[in-house]
Amino acid sequence: MTERRLLLVNGPNLNLLGTRQPEVYGATTLAEIEARVSEVAKESGLKVRAVQSNHEGALVDAIHAARTDCAGIVINPAAYSHTSVAIADALRSVGLPVAEVHLSNIHAREEFRHHSYVSAVADMVVAGAGPLGYEMAVRYLADRLTP
Ligand code: DQA
């Protein structure tokens, strides 16, 4: 039985949250989001490993690594949502429940953001709820993982 741990993955440019286009992504920093995710996960007895990278291959590697010690994945693939078959395939390959998060409502933005390769693999998708979306994703996975 895999350990009770979630992998939290954040993709490119999300390291700049707090200062990056605050009118779109808000003022909350990635560190604050990661802390809150850990807090919410802890309520359900889950630990969190948080990874952020601006590199597609590093994100694929982090997803593969989850195979051995994680029970679910919360992922905001950021711009790679719209381009990366590799990340979608990595998620498919590990076979863990996946919750996809977008801070902004990608469906109300430019057309190229409307499609996410990851959504076809995700068990749930939340977009437009801001940082609260990450909490919703954790609560969804915690509920799913409850025997
Ligand atoms: C995002 C939306 C993506 O279109 C964008 O490229 C991001 C962040 C979001 O959280 O709203 O970097 O995933």
How would you summarize the topology of this molecule?
Elements: E1 5-10, H1 22-25, H2 30-43, E2 47-52, H3 56-69, E3 72-76, H4 85-94, E4 98-102, E5 124-127, H5 132-145
Parallel strand pairs: 1-2, 1-3, 3-4, 4-5
Helix pairs in contact: 2-5, 3-4
This protein binds 1,3,4-trihydroxy-5-OXO-cyclohexanecarboxylic acid.
The site of 1,3,4-trihydroxy-5-OXO-cyclohexanecarboxylic acid has 10 residues, from loops.
Structural overview:
Keywords: Amino-acid biosynthesis, Aromatic amino acid biosynthesis, Lyase. InterPro entries: DHquinase_II, DHquinase_II_CS, DHquinase_II_sf. Its EC number is 4.2.1.10. By secondary structure, the protein is α/β, with parallel strands linked by helices. 38% of the residues lie in helices and 18% in strands. The chain has 5 helices and 5 strands. It has a 5-stranded parallel sheet, with helices on both faces. Helix 4 links the parallel strand 3 and strand 4. Helix 2 packs parallel to helix 5 and helix 3 runs parallel beside helix 4. The protein is globular and about 40 Å long. The two termini are 12 Å apart. 1,3,4-trihydroxy-5-OXO-cyclohexanecarboxylic acid (DQA) binds next to loops.
